[in-house]
Amino acid sequence: MMNFEELKKLAHDTRTEVLEMCIKAGTGHVTSSMSSVEVLISLYFGGLVNVRPEEPKWSGRDRVIISKGQCSPLIYSVLSTKGFFPKDWLNGFAQKDGHFGVHLQNSVPGVELTTGALGHGLGVAAGVALAAKMNRDLHMVYCLLGDGELYEGSIWESAMFAAHNQLNNLVVIVDRNFLATTDFTENMMALEPLDQKFESFGFNVVTVDGHNIESLIQSMSGLRNRKSRKPTVIIAETTKGAGIPSLSHNPVMHGVPPKGTQEINQARKDLAKGSI
Description:
The chain is an alpha/beta fold and about 280 residues long.
């Protein structure tokens, strides 16, 4: 397993790769990807997730379900670094002859579920977790949610289902960047107090700095021991566009890369500074 400094460097390199993928394609959800970088780096390179890149459908693998499928550039970058497919596939992101488009698709090795339409990932994850318990399989199920999709009623129906069935093999991670598609979440429809909402639905709740790899790993490292019968939610407080201040905290930048020489150069300059 990498040490924390190596993981931080990998997070920075991943941000750079994602930005350049989207600039080349002229499309892609840059800011949505940037907020989840440390979460995915922690899962795949911090000793949390058991997978076999050379055997993507290995029956004993942990299932990682990315409900916020708009951050597909990040997932593709992470999976390629992990060894699920060659790096040169990334050159064809959202290209006519490429292996994948703008939203996440399960035809790509390492991707469990095609997503992009929001609100479905947790229901699938809960069903997969229940099946694992019924079959006495020991793998974990991780589900990454965007906070904007918490407006979907299907999320809370699935949360009730998960708690009722004591799915202690389910770990939900909320990318809490406080921005939805068009505005800040607390302006559109307040989600706070989010921790209390999940607690009332029967979850163990942990709130962490979503850009602190050490805290993320610590928050999830003991969950495989099943000390509680409850499902767990990690509320990872993040910044949409983290690492690129010129794109951050700006609803207008949802779903688009920087465009034009000035915007692109500024984004690259921001990222080169290496600070969140």
